[in-house]
Design goal:
Glycosyltransferase; alpha+beta; 15-stranded antiparallel sheet; 25 strands; 13 helices; binds the ligand OC[C@H]1O[C@H](O[C@H]2O[C@H](CO)[C@@H](O)[C@H](O)[C@H]2O)[C@H](O)[C@@H](O)[C@@H]1O; globular; 6hp_glycosidase-like_sf; two-stranded antiparallel sheet
């Protein structure tokens, strides 16, 4: 049975990722890529939809940590008879997808239970399972359709009723290493190699990356874990950055607000990049820029708001009706219909991120600038159209104020690229559009009676996305119109001290049900306070929010403070990138 979301930790190999529960169960694993069909899907169904568990028999207590600045997870189980650790990781650097689990006896003797239940194609397909000898080593292979998994270890579990189980004792000093490796089903496995070298290399590479992170930010340890998490959501070969490694962890327990986040949104990825670049990770920017160039290549008119990790464009949304959903939250969706939406903010976020990269010394690339010119020119033709906004509403398109402000940012950064960096473009035309958008927003997106910006041009509702306006330099953080907007958001959108995206009761999103406060928006309020000079409030809120990370520093999309539960896909880039940005805004850098 799936655990509360906050009881999971993330491991990954920079191509895909898995969620490991406090109970030693891997309940979510898509191999070999983030958006491949899951072979362990118990998270959004039941144990019968696939899980791989190693845990002590009987009662035990659990504590967990990542080893240093790495993505290697160590779970310590304490029982009445002894203590064992379970070390979980996905080794890197060999173009292969493996999950490695090492059980080590620390004290006394502990009886462990091992259960390996594989169901391919999102928990649906029972594989053909047999024992095989490869290079003199006995392994269990599970095959169905395009996929093959090999389970290795010093004791292989026995088949009973479409699952594999075993019980064994671990005594002090003993170490048992198990691994599951994915291969295409047509590949004849040979020479599986020794995984220990790669475990060491993986930890060393992680530590070297983490060692470059600034250590003088508020809550530097939490900021580092956020950056490491953003890195784990980046595909190291293609450069694509996924919004989260999961699908359909609900925004509303038992409701329909369940979405697939295993794709690369231009908005989420650009904001991730901005956070990484602010922390000094500039190589990632170059990698993502190349992904952008390939994915967006072609007619600017065909620009999408999201793509697959390899740049593929078709992401049709379907429901998986054989899955019961996380805590009965149905449907479980794969693909995302928002792919076809018009969201006019995305180019703004991309232009802001690429400016950060340029300023941080990323290699210049004439193709990248040519692409930006083409996209900005295209936006010049259609910036006045209504859109679905950054919240991807499924109701009637509107003239969203945040979208228009990001249009302003797109032209502003294009102008600055010419003025500051000497790049070429029709700067006078861009200046005129930039100024016209600014004027239009002040005329139609501002409620003079209440002294606040509004969610869109035909409403008096407010929206947490308006907190971004000072971040992009639309107005100074202490401008009375920004202060009025902060006040209106404090009045209308705070629940349990955290910030909602908007009032769902207005019906703007075209969906039923409600949602919980959105963590990224709560971090944006920290940034807004900091930029307004309200430093005490900024620090107090940041301290509170940082206190919401789970025991290994991870955040989901939303937070239900009344019940102390994480909500929505997990871990979510949006939450972690906003945490990093807030730390930099607090530090004034
Ligand atoms: O709430 C409705 C929408 O929720 C998802 O979008 C949210 O997640 C995206 C990825 O992190 C983010 O870019 C967007 O701003 C968020 O609103 C979902 O993907 C949409 O299909 C859905 O309509």
């Amino acid at each position: 049975m799936a655990l509360p979301i906050e009881d999971y930790a993330l491991i990954g190999d920079l191509r895909t990722a898995a969620l490991v529960g406090r109970n030693g169960s891997i309940d979510w694993l898509c191999l070999p890529r983030f958006d491949s069909p899951a072979c362990l899907a118990g998270l959004v169904g039941s144990d019968e939809n696939g899980h791989w568990q190693l845990h002590p028999e009987g009662d035990y207590e659990t504590s967990r940590r990542y080893l240093g600045g790495s993505a290697v997870l160590e779970t310590t189980f304490t029982t009445a008879t002894g203590v064992v650790t379970l070390t979980d990781l996905m080794p890197r650097g060999d173009q292969r997808a493996d999950v490695v689990r090492s059980v080590t006896g620390v004290r006394g003797t502990v009886r462990m239970h091992h259960r390996w239940v594989i169901r391919f194609d999102y928990g649906k397909v029972r594989p053909w399972v047999r024992r095989q000898t490869i290079g003199g080593e006995q392994v269990i292979s599970a095959i169905a359709g395009p996929d093959q998994l090999l389970l290795r270890g010093p004791r292989l579990p026995r088949a009973t009723d479409h699952r594999h189980e075993d019980t064994f004792d671990v005594t002090e000093g003993e170490e048992l290493v198990f691994s599951t490796t994915w291969l295409p089903s047509h590949v004849e496995p040979h020479d599986l190699g020794d995984l220990r070298d790669r475990i060491r290399a993986t930890v060393e590479a992680d530590e070297a990356w983490a060692g470059r992170c600034p250590d003088d930010l508020p809550h530097a340890d939490v900021v580092l874990r956020s950056l490491l998490t953003l890195r784990l959501l980046t595909h190291e070969v293609t450069g694509g950055i996924v919004a989260a490694p999961t699908t359909s962890l609900p925004e509303d327990f038992g409701g329909e607000r369940n979405w697939d986040y295993r794709f690369c949104w231009l908005r989420d990825a650009a904001l991730t990049l901005t956070s990484l670049v602010r922390a000094g990770y500039v190589d990632e920017a170059t990698l993502w820029r190349s992904w952008l160039l390939r994915s967006v290549a072609g007619d600017p008119e065909d620009l999408q708001i999201m793509y697959a990790v390899d740049g593929a464009r078709r992401l049709p949304e379907r429901t998986l009706d054989h899955l019961t959903g996380y805590e009965q939250s149905r449907p479980v969706r794969i693909g995302n219909a928002a792919v076809d939406q018009h969201q006019s903010d995305v180019l703004g976020e991309v232009m802001v991120a690429l400016e950060h990269a340029r300023d941080a010394g990323a290699d210049s690339d004439s193709n990248a600038w040519a692409l930006q010119v083409a996209l900005v020119e295209n936006l010049a033709e259609k910036w006045q159209e209504p859109d679905n906004g950054l919240w991807e509403i499924r109701g009637k398109p509107q003239h969203f104020t945040h979208s228009r402000a990001m249009v302003w940012a797109a032209f502003d950064r294009a102008v600055r690229a010419v003025e500051k960096s000497g790049l070429e473009g029709p700067v006078e035309r861009w200046r005129q559009i930039r100024d016209a958008v600014h004027e239009e927003i002040l005329a139609h997106g501002f409620d003079h009676e209440r002294g606040t910006f509004t969610q869109h041009y035909d409403t008096t509702e407010v929206d947490a996305s308006l907190l971004v306006l000072p971040q992009i330099g639309f107005l100074p953080g202490d401008d009375p119109r920004i202060l009025g907007t902060i006040k209106a958001i404090e009045e209308d959108l705070i629940r349990d001290g955290l910030v909602l995206r908007y009032r769902t009761q207005s019906g703007v999103d075209g969906l039923s049900g409600d949602e919980h406060p959105f963590l990224a928006c709560s971090f944006w309020l920290v940034s807004a306070y900091a930029l307004a000079g309200r430093r005490d409030q900024a620090h107090a809120l940041f301290d509170r929010l940082v206190g919401l990370v789970n025991d290994v520093g991870l955040l989901s999309e939303e937070y239900d403070a009344a019940n102390g539960r994480m909500v929505g896909n997990f871990p979510q880039a949006f939450s972690h990138l906003a945490l990093v940005q807030a730390a930099f805004d607090l530090a004034g850098r």
